[in-house]
Amino acid sequence: MAEFDSLYVWTPCCSHNINKVVSNWGQSVKNATKVEEIDPQKLSREQAAVELARLAAELLQANADYHGKDKPVITDAKYDLLKIRNTAIEAQFPDLKREDSPSEQIGGPLAEGFSKIRHDVRMLSLGNAFDPDDVDEFDARIRKYLGLSEADPLSYTAEPKIDGLSLSLRYEHGKLVSAATRGDGEVGENVTANAKMIANVPQTIADAPELLEVRGEVYMSHEDFAALNRAQESVGAKNFANPRNAAAGSLRQLDAKITKARPLAFFAYAWGALSEPLAKAQLDAIERLGKFGFQINPLTKLCAGPKELVAHYKHIEMARPDLGYDIDGVVYKVNDLDLQRRLGFRSTTPRWAIAHKFAAELAWTHLEAIEIQVGRTGALSPVARLSPVTVGGVVVSNATLHNEDYIKGLDSKGAEIRGGKDVREGDFVQVYRAGDVIPKVADVDLAKRPESALSFEFPVTCPECGSAAIREEGDAVRRCTGGVICPAQVVEKLKHFVSRGAFDIDGLGAKQVEAFYHDDQLKVLEPADIFTLKSRDAEGLTKLKNRDGWGDTSVSNLFDAIDERRKIPLNRVIFALGIRHVGESAANLFARHFSTWEDFNKAVRDAEPQDGPAWDDLMSIDGVGAVMAASLTQTFAQEREYASISRLVAELDIQSVERPSQDGSPVAGKTVVFTGSLEKMTRAEAKARAESLGAKVSGSVSAKTNLLVAGPGAGSKATKAAALGIEVIDEDAWLVLIGDA
Predict the structure, then answer these.
(1) Res 360: pLDDT
(2) Most CB atoms within 10 A, among 167, 307, 727, 733?
């Protein structure tokens, strides 16, 4: 649960391919009798809401125990499992995400007795990597964003991830003036008096910037921890559970004399507010902190790329038992601080850093069965049903098998995994939990494979509807083609349609949708049928109000709630359609870009050939890629799907969505086109910056274009802009205009 801090705004990350997260919660689904034991993919909407409430309460208490009292009641492994379960359920039911969602929380409540200090630069957490492939992907994402090829040099720092309590030390004119814990990321506890009692925390610094916030981790060595517990025993006091708890509890004493008596130490690895830059590179900045008198980790190393990062990770992992203090992984950061600034952040994670967690605990067990689950988008997902086994303190009975290639012993590129061993029902398998959280099959013991174990034949027809299940080129997943005739897909899409982030119709939840789907008289097979329920009920012989579970009031309230949702914003409609790859955030992007349903509908239909101005316009939206755009246009191009959408739209009054106000922005509301070669930023950076200032970024020049930013080799777009009388500026003028020069 210990988190890593930096001068940057870091957001918590549980996004290690959430599609990899499949159930591992206690009893198998077949035998589950409690909500907390049910696979997230099998939860009903009502069960999911109950479970999210339970998880929010339990994780809030865990945060209070861990961060506030320094006395965790549950293990880190159990905490991580609860956190990932919460994230998995939120991914399955995004509309049910709570305002107090644990995925949005950093740290815990402040302890009583301490005054508060607000951080000038927030102290948040860092996302995780769990295997070398994740490190390769991390490097590839950075290179793509920066416009770098594989041949371009790009260095990183790699350093041990200390398992302690984060602390921010503020120096003014070289003197330590305050110290604060992370707290909730924005406000921490004032532990200045206690921090001054840590032996290796400098009280003054020579030749330091006028303002310097040094950030790092307070920890306790194994040797000192053992000595402290012996001292505790000698006076009849309770032992500390581990060095991290001992360090955190010692730092957060109301009596600084107690802190002074505890053997605390401090590793510096980052910084917060600064009056001037420390250096141009991460490693140089850390070394400068060392020259100021701070203890920095000697295992911090400059690495040229993923291979060197993973090699140093393995070196640190092998050295871990002899370090004398606790670490739980290795942190990688882009070394060039200017590149860190350019890379910036996504909504939940920094682009330029990641924590590579140590390998999880392993366990062997029997694989009893391989089951196929069908999702809303038709994806056939294989799940291993295991004989329950304890892994990292958690009972695991299910594990993800990802897709048919994974079962065969191949990765997405056709390369061997597990030494090319396939997975079969009846196998004796080694299970691990990636990052101590995600259950996977690590290996197969062929010596124990039963003679009766046959190669698993992945279905080529849907187990729910019998339709062909096809695998398109470039897609690792096989999908049911049944669409509206596949009950699994139809019901799940209808549940999604009425979810909170979509139409959110009071009185019409997952349970009611499923009941109406199977109803002979008031059958709901598509979203438009919801809006004809009232008229169809009036024409029917058996009224809904006379059925079990319904009455005059409940039926009247339902029909009123449905009518209220006829008037609905564009973004909710787009999200409610349940189009693959188009989530809530993407729906908001499309709604802000096109504003009206008419413009959105026309643009998507016009973009169906996936070429030309309409396609370019879709692709110009920051955050929209080719896969998402193709999924959208293909959906609207399918005759049956589009007919269903049209019937729905005919029942609605879709409200336009205005672009967000950007007060003071010189380009707010304007349409900007970038062309030619940009030399000081990549096209992705330019688009992202313009969108953040309220501009609409288009891929083509038209009469609606307000500004063309032209680099070398601008070509025909510049010629067309000049003919239309559109203002044309170069990259330097653009940077001056937006205040980035």
Answers:
(1) 58
(2) 167
